[in-house]
Structure formats: structure tokens, C-alpha cells
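Q: Convert this sequence to C-alpha cells.
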Amino acid sequence: MKKDIHPQVYEVEVTCISCGSKFKTHSTRKDIKVDTCANCHPFYTGKQRFVAADGRVDRFNKKYGIK
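A:
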């Protein structure tokens, strides 16, 4: 392998801006800040809301009373 071609790898602390949680990982960057993490993301916390959106077919059937 060639010498001096690989980037320097650091042990960094990733900080979530939304909830303030922190965890450690390895990266070539010295500082990492994320908007959402697994602790505050609605999909992972189970607080996700599903919006029932009517599709075109459903609206047509409802409009003309088709069951």
C-alpha cells in the first residue's frame, strides 16, 4: 500500500441539534452535528403520524357513490 494517501480518522462525538443527545463514532471530520437522530426521529420513537390521504380512485368512488 502507498504511504500517506489515507485520510486521518478521528474518534468524534456526534451531537443532535434537536434533542441534544450525543454518541461517539469514527470519522474523517473532527465535528459532526445532525438535525435528527434515532432518539428523536418520529419513525424510530413510534410517534409517527400517518395521514390518510384520499387517492383519485377513492375520491371518484365517493363522489359517485360507488362501493
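The longest helix spans residues 56-63.
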